[in-house]
Each structure stands twice: as structure tokens, then as C-alpha cells.
Amino acid sequence: TKPPPVMRYNLNNVTITHNPVENRENVLILTPMARFYQEYWDNLMKLSYPHELITLGFILPKNKEGNAATSELQKQIAKTQTSGPEKARFNSIIILRQEFDPPISSQDEVERHKMQNQRARRAAMAKARNSLLFTTLGPAVSWVLWLDADIIETPPTLIQDLALHDKPLIAPNCFQRYYNTETKKMDERPYDFNNWQDSPTAQQLGEKMGPDEILLEGYQDMPTYRSLMAFMYKPDEDKHTEVPLDGVGGTALLVKADVHRDGAMFPAFPFYHLIETEGFAKMAKRLGWQATGLPNYKVYHYNE
Ligand code: GDP
Ligand code: MN
User: Fold this and answer.
1) What is the pLDDT of residue 66?
2) Residues 12, 140: contact at Cβ < 8 Å?
């Protein structure tokens, strides 16, 4: 009998550069998914980064809604990977089912954004992201793109555009299209408030807190006076304008795989009074990796 093969990877040969297409760099797209939106899949399919260099990873809760989303996702995957054009096929696809129960059954937008529901929800999300990350991050991955399942519109060049900046963590600005009843026209508004620059007020709030308390963004009961990237959008300015960030969201976020390999993950516990994606930005920073935001580069969140 033959001895088991030894797999050798020299991490120095896995490049992470601003020109990932030319350098044939592998991208891992990770999506926690509670619901399946066709618009998410259609947008994903339109990404112009070579699909043969992309691995998709999903994690879905094991509840009724998660089961429904899984079967819809599997339908689309089967179509793409078997009967679709070869160019559209992804390198590989991994689907995980979440073993623990989501903390709140009701997932409507109002309910899940209530402050008292945030902590448990964000902690569960952190664990889901970590499970997904630690089971899928292989030695050949250069970049990890975190992309929420309700991101339904991005430029097709999203990965190339973000990678071009050559930053350890980089986030576009997440907006939402809606029908403006005053102007009677379609309009758009900022959505993701987790991309922010820290403030002295938030720092002082944190200092007065007990070790188990967390700071949350976007709640009137807890004014932080942080500078939110969501409100930094300037229509006439360069799409590639960069701003430094102290907190990030997970709606769309490109991360150099080395940041995760160094051990930066999504704390499900208060880390400097921050959890999940915001805690991740802080942990990355403590490891020497600074987050960047692109206020004028927009992606769009589904409107429930
Ligand atoms: P919000 O946009 O900040 O309100 O957060 P979402 O509820 O949209 O959640 C962020 C992402 O995680 C989305 O892609 C959801 O589909 C997904 N998601 C939400 N809850 C769960 C959950 O309990 N388990 C898993 N695996 N994914 C979830
Ligand atoms: Mn969402």
C-alpha cells in the first residue's frame, strides 16, 4: 500500500497583490445566509472575476427558513455548476448548516434591529462567520470576500476594484434603494452603519462600561458620535477615495487571507466592548492590520 500523500503548500507562493486576476489569486467568497434572494445569486453570477478562481462558502441556519434557503441555493448551484456555461462555473462550493439555533426566531428587520436583540443576534452571527471561515480557509486562498446574502447589487468588477487598493481589509459603502413617497421616485439611503471611525465619546462610553458590556452603533439610546462611512458618500468625488475605519460591517468586505491566518476572527464576546464584524476590525488592528473604507464606492442591500 502507498503511504498517504503529503500536501505541501508554500504560503510564500500564494501571492496577495493589487492585480489578483493576472496573478491567478484564489478568492473565497463567504456568505452567511438566512434567506435566499435570487437577486443575490444573479449579482454573484455577474462578478467578472474569473469564476474558476472563486470558491463559494455558505452557512445557513438549521430552521424552516434555512431549509428553504438551502434548497433554493442548491437549485441555483446545480444549474450553474452542471448545465450552465463552463465559464460561469465556480472552482468549488461549500455549504454548511449551522448546528446551533438562531437566538431569535423572528427575523424581520424591525425585530432584529431592536437593541435588546442585538447582542445575542450579533454573537450568533459571529459564531456562524467563524465556523464558516475556519472550515473553508485553505492554504491556496489569497483573498476572502465577505458578502451578505442580501447584497443584491454591486459593480461586476467588485473584487478587482477592491483588491486594487491593496489593503488588508477594505469595505465599500452599503446603500439601499427604496421608494421615496415624498418625491414619488426611487431613491437610495445609507444602510450599513457598522463602517465607522471611532470618537472620543464612544471611547469614554467604553471606559465606563463593565467588561461584559458592548457598544452598539446606530441606536438613539446610545449616541456614540462616531463618524459613519454611510454618511461620507460624495456623489461628485472619486469612487476610489479611501478613508481609515475603526469598525467594519460584514455586508461586503474584502480581507487579505493573511489577516484571518494571523488569527483575526469575529469575537462572539465583548472585545474592547465590540463584537462580531466591529470586533473583527479591532482585532485585526491589534494584529497590525488597518481597515479602509471606500465611501463613494456603493453596493446595495435588499429592501424587505
Ligand atoms: P442586517 O442586514 O445587519 O440586519 O443583518 P442580516 O439579518 O441581514 O444578517 C447578515 C447576514 O447574515 C445576511 O446574509 C443574513 O442572510 C445572514 N444571517 C442572518 N441570521 C443568520 C443566522 O442565524 N444564521 C446564518 N447562518 N446566517 C444568518
Ligand atoms: Mn442584511
Assistant:
1) 96
2) no
CATH number attached to the domain at 20-301: 3.90.550.10
- Which amino acid is present at 181? T
Side chain identity, residue 267: P
The SS3 of residue 57 is strand
227-228 and 141-147 strand pairing: unpaired
Distance CA 191, CA 194 (A): 9
The DSSP bridge pattern shows strands 185-190 and 92-98 to be: unpaired
SS3 for 171?
strand
CA–CA gap between residue 26 and residue 156 (Å, rounded): 17
Hey, which of 41, 127, 150, 189 would you mutate to test ligand 1's pocket, going by the most ligand atoms within 8 Å of its Cβ?
Answer: 150
* Confidence at 106, pLDDT banded by 50, 70, 90: low
Is residue 105 pLDDT above 70, yes or no? Answer: no
Exposure class string for 41-73: b at 16+ Cβ within 10 A, else e: bebbeebebbbebbbbbbbbbeeebbeebbebb
Residue ranges lining ligand 1, Cβ < 6 Å: 32-35, 59-61, 98, 102, 112, 124-125, 128, 148-150
Which numbered atom of ligand 1 lies nearest the CA of 192? 3
**Beta strand pairing call for 291-301 and 151-153:** antiparallel
* E runs forming strands in the chain: 26-32, 54-61, 92-98, 141-147, 151-153, 169-180, 185-190, 196-197, 227-228, 243-245, 252-256, 291-301
Q: What pLDDT, on the 0 to 100 scale, is given for residue 197?
A: 98
Reference 192, options 301, 50, 74, 64; nearest CA is: 301
Nearest to 90 by CA among 76, 100, 102: 76
User: d(Cα 173, Cα 193) in Å, to the nearest integer?
Assistant: 9
